[in-house]
Specification:
One of its GO terms (biological process) is plasma membrane organization. It is found in: Membrane. InterPro entries: TLC-dom, TLCD. It holds the Pfam family TRAM_LAG1_CLN8. The chain has helices spanning about 5-10, 20-40, 45-65, 70-80, 85-95, 100-130, 140-170. The longest helix is centred in the C-terminal third of the chain and has 31 residues, at about 100-130. With about 170 residues, the protein is mostly helical. The protein starts with 6 loop residues before the first helix and ends with a helix. The chain has one domain (about 20-170).
Length: about 170
């Protein structure tokens, strides 16, 4: 989207092509479905962190969808999900007991690399943008964004530490 619509990088608040709003709306649906699925099919002690993560995303993206604003900012947040491909593949390889394979090792390296680029760097950029644009964001929306970033950033740092310890510090 940013390549095809460079104006998004100039205005993350009000500018969005129709497809971008739809993408964020569909993402809310995905997070809602995944949230309900986890509630029904997993034990709470196994999934509480992800349920909490999904709650924050649903609220933040929901505001964007309902207000038709901050769609560009939500698109930036969706970059984080690129890494989810490798996190999910890691889970599948673990469930298949393929931990000691080249495929698992390669995925671990790619997972860590995409984690740094698409999670850590993106969340840092978003936090910086929010801070630099605090005068242009209404107080309630700024509060939701700040709380969202304050929750997501430590959660992602902790998960990064767990991945590093599990896959590289044995």
């Amino acid at each position: 989207r940013f390549y095809l619509h460079p104006e998004l990088s100039e205005d993350l608040v009000g500018t969005h092509p129709p497809g971008a709003h739809s993408l964020v709306a569909v993402s809310v649906g995905y997070f809602l479905e995944d949230f309900v699925d986890m509630l029904c099919n997993q034990k709470l002690h196994q999934s509480w962190e992800l349920l909490f993560h999904h709650s924050v995303v649903i609220v933040c993206f929901g505001i964007s969808v309902l207000l038709h604003q901050y769609v560009g900012f939500a698109l930036m947040a969706l970059l984080v999900e690129i890494n989810s491909i490798f996190l999910h593949l890691r889970q599948i390889l673990l469930m298949a007991n393929l931990v000691h394979t080249t495929c698992y090792r390669l995925n671990s390296i790619i997972n860590l690399g995409t984690y740094v680029v698409f999670r850590i760097a993106t969340l840092a950029w978003m936090s910086r943008w929010l801070f630099l644009n605090r005068e242009n964001v209404p107080p309630a929306t700024y509060a939701v964004g700040t709380v969202g970033m304050a929750i997501m950033t430590p959660m992602n740092i902790i998960l990064f530490y767990r991945l590093l310890r599990s896959d590289f510090c044995k």
